[in-house]
Design a protein that fits this description.
The protein is α/β, with parallel strands linked by helices. It contains ten helices and eight strands. The protein binds phosphoenolpyruvate.
Amino acid sequence: MSTARKIRPLVAGNWKMNGLKAGLGEACKVRDALKAGGGSAGAEADVMICPPATLVAALAQDAVGSRLLVGGQDCHAKASGANTGDIAAEMLADAGATAVIVGHSERRMDHGELDAEIRAKAEAAHRAGLIAIICVGETAGERAIGLTLQVVGRQLAGAVPKGATAANTVVAYEPVWAIGTGLTPTAADVAQVHQFMREALSKQLGSEANSMRLLYGGSVKASNAKELMGVANVDGALVGGASLKADDFCGILAAYCK
Ligand code: PEP
């Protein structure tokens, strides 16, 4: 399946607000599995962990010389300023991150983030030399009344910057109702949304969209990864709960081994 892929997939783990220094051992096990290669090491994908901001620098240090990439979970649109408690994209880059998630549904819901702000955060990521992982996805209510494509289309139009390229931007389709619930859309539903996203991004960005990575996120685990990652236009996964334990995460990475 994956040897014919033109787009190198990305599997990114989002630790959310989980993890103390002691928990970095799990990330180090993933790092060591990638180093060792073989069976379940996700050799045909880029692999990233996005720990809480407090652990970005330490994990980046632990990851030096390995294939493990480190990302942040959010950033402010500005490079500096009177913004108590916020973190600039430049600070994440300085700490060793190479990417940052923006527009996660938990940020949209818990912090009232709207597409314009998410776009500004993605632009900040680009300014700092980071890959912006832009999340989109419909709620259960929106899905129930047939608004999935409309919502995803509106979020793409509003949150993806004009200057987005395949090198600096990843889009993650994360149906809100699938996050942390154990529920997933069918492969056919994922295929429909990802095809729609590819076409919508082509209209927005031209040929850059052809090679932009489109991740699926929402209750991905070892047992469903191969099927979900095998869907057309799915170029990897954004993983929450199952990224916290190395064995679970490596089980997902196994979808991308020779
Ligand atoms: C997420 O929050 O980005 C996510 C995909 O979570 P989970 O894998 O736990 O559903």
